[in-house]
Structure formats: C-alpha cells, structure tokens
Write a structure and sequence with these properties.
The protein is 78% helix and 0% strand. It is mainly alpha-helical. This is Transcriptional regulator, TetR family.
Length: 200
C-alpha cells in the first residue's frame, strides 16, 4: 500500500506545479528548463527532482490537471436544456476559464502550437469523441428548428476562439484596452453575438 503524502510534500508539489505553470506558459515546453522552474519555485534543483524526476514528468502532471479542467465545460452541455441558453452558458464557462486560468490556457496553446506532442492522444481520443457527441446534439437542435442552421464544428471552434483569445493574447488585449478589464464587456458582447447567431 502506497504511503500517503505528507502535508509538506503536498505543499511542495503544489509550489512546483504553480511555478512550472508560470514557466511553461511563458516559454513553452522546449524553451523551459528545470533551472528556471526551481528558481521560480524557490527550491533547489535537487529538491525539485525529489518530487518530479524530470521536466517531462512535471509537464505531464500539469497537462493531466489541465485537460480535466478544459474538457469539463463541454461535458456540462445539457442536450435536454434550452439550446440557445445551453450554448450561451457553455461560452460563458469558457470565457470564465480564460479569466480564472490564463496560464493554463497559454500552456494548452503552447502545446498545440508545438504540434501537441504530449496530448495528441487525448485530442484524437476523449476530446474528439466529446466534440463529436456535441456535434450530434447541435445537429438535432438545428433539425428541430430550435437554433438557426449552423455548422456544429465551426460553432464550437468559434466559441473556443472567442473565449480563449482573452487569455492566449492577453498582452495584445491589454495593450489595446489599457487599464480597462476586458472581461467586464466581453461577456455581454459574446452574449449578443451568439444569441443573434443562434436564435431562430
């Protein structure tokens, strides 16, 4: 039986993962080093390697946490709910994720830009299966006249692009909007845009 981790071990693992998230989201996997992560964590490299044997192990742990969080909003789409409201709620959940988890969003974006070498199996497996299921739900809504005719895949891609942009391109958004919080108005804009697109 595996011995449970101590409070100190759990705390140090959380510190390491938080620091590595900063480093990976800024420099990507290839551009990040264990020295950068140990410095950001305020721990020695030897201490870091006590908890995680390699940079790959840290990255894998982060991606495992991220993918569970990333897929959850789509899982919560209710096929029996009001179609327009369900899709709007999904878009708002994705926007909220960009606001609350910008580093995670950039980590995901960096992984995709590098060809998804560490999560390609998930993209072509669980995510693709879930997206295909959502495609079927949206298709049924279109056929029932509950929403306007729309390509389900491109609708999903549009929601991803509209929401993740605020995290992945935060520097650009902030440069243009200055001190104004983009999320204060982004939700209303998203609501108006999608409601006009989807309402029969």
């Amino acid at each position: 039986m595996k011995k449970p981790k101590t409070r100190i071990q759990l705390r140090n693992e959380a510190i390491i993962l938080g620091a590595s998230l900063d480093v990976f989201s800024q420099f990507g996997f290839r551009g990040s080093t264990l020295d950068q992560i140990s410095e950001a964590a305020g721990l020695s490299k030897a201490n870091l390697l006590y908890y995680f044997p390699s940079k790959e192990a840290i990255h894998a742990a982060l991606l495992a946490q991220l993918l569970e969080t990333w897929i959850d909003p789509l899982k919560r789409l209710d096929p029996t709910g009001d179609p327009v409201e369900e899709l709007l709620a999904y878009a708002h959940r994705k926007l909220d994720m960009s606001k609350r988890f910008p580093r995670e969003s950039r980590l995901f974006a960096n992984e995709i830009l590098q060809g998804a070498p560490h999560i390609n199996n998930v993209l072509q497996g669980e995510l693709r299966d879930l997206t295909d299921q959502t495609h079927q739900v949206i298709t049924k809504w279109v056929e029932a006249g509950a929403i306007r005719p729309v390509d389900p895949y491109h609708l999903i891609f549009t929601i991803w692009a509209l929401t993740q942009h605020y995290a992945d391109f935060a520097v650009q958004v902030r440069a243009i909007m200055g001190d104004q919080d983009p999320f204060e108005s982004a939700g209303d804009y998203l609501e108006t845009l999608l409601r006009r697109l989807l309402t029969p």
